[in-house]
């Protein structure tokens, strides 16, 4: 996979200081890729107006902002790694604006998938073949009940095969004293990247490590509360 075909979308308002970005870069390191990077909070991207002008004008949005350039990069990418912290059980507003403004990549025409779900057809065949990886971190120690809506959105928008790196206790990644717990986790994220490059998926063995908390939840809750 050519480096220019890999796109990293940093959805965190913290920019380069993002805990989740550390995970995404570790995943790409495991893949042996660097990837072009988009920092959502640094861009001028207005909310979608819901006017559907893009469907009447061959995929062109009427809003003159940075999204036109982003759409070109998204459509050309073979792999998009979405790096986002969990905000109110979804994504931060700047990242949500990008997701909403992907509408020009689809068309009004509908199709029925093998699971009986209706989708809009992709306007460009390249975008339909793009693979996606969701890397997200949250401040709670439990995966279940926290990432559910985020996982649903990305797999419903893109593909049931969207790979998931959903890290609980993510604030530990910024604490040097937590490295005995965080460094093994980052090693597992790199292993996930290596597996994904070779097979297009993450093995059950590595996925179990990624889905587990880095610290005992009772210990983490006590530390976070203090």
Automatic annotation (TrEMBL):
Q: NADPH-dependent FMN reductase-like domain spans which residues? A: 5-102
One Pfam family from the record:
FMN_red
Mind telling me which InterPro entries this protein's record contains? Flavoprotein-like_sf, FMN_Rdtase-like_dom, ISF_SsuE-like
Keyword annotations: Flavoprotein, FMN
Q: In its UniProt entry, what is this protein called?
A: Flavodoxin family protein
Species source reads: Eggerthella hominis
């Amino acid at each position: 996979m050519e480096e220019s075909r890999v796109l990293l979308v940093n959805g965190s308002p913290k920019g380069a200081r993002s805990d989740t970005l550390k995970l995404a870069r570790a995943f790409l390191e495991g893949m042996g890729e660097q990837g072009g990077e988009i920092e959502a909070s640094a861009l001028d991207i207005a909310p979608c107006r819901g006017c559907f002008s893009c469907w009447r004008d061959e995929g062109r949005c009427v809003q003159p902002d940075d999204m036109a350039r982003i759409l070109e990069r998204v459509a050309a990418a073979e792999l998009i790694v979405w790096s986002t912290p969990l905000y109110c059980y979804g994504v931060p507003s700047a990242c949500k604006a990008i997701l909403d403004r992907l509408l020009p990549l689809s068309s009004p025409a509908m199709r029925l998938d093998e699971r009986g779900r209706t989708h809009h057809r992709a306007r460009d065949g390249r975008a339909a073949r793009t693979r996606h990886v969701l890397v997200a971190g949250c401040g709670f120690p439990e995966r279940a009940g926290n990432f559910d809506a985020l996982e649903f959105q990305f797999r419903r928008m893109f593909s049931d095969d969207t790979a998931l790196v959903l890290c609980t206790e993510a604030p530990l990644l910024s604490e040097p004293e937590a490295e005995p717990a965080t460094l093994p986790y980052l090693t597992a994220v790199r292993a996930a990247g290596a597996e994904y490059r070779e097979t297009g998926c993450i093995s059950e063995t590595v996925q179990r490590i990624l889905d587990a908390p880095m610290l005992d939840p009772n210990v983490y809750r006590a530390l976070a509360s203090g």
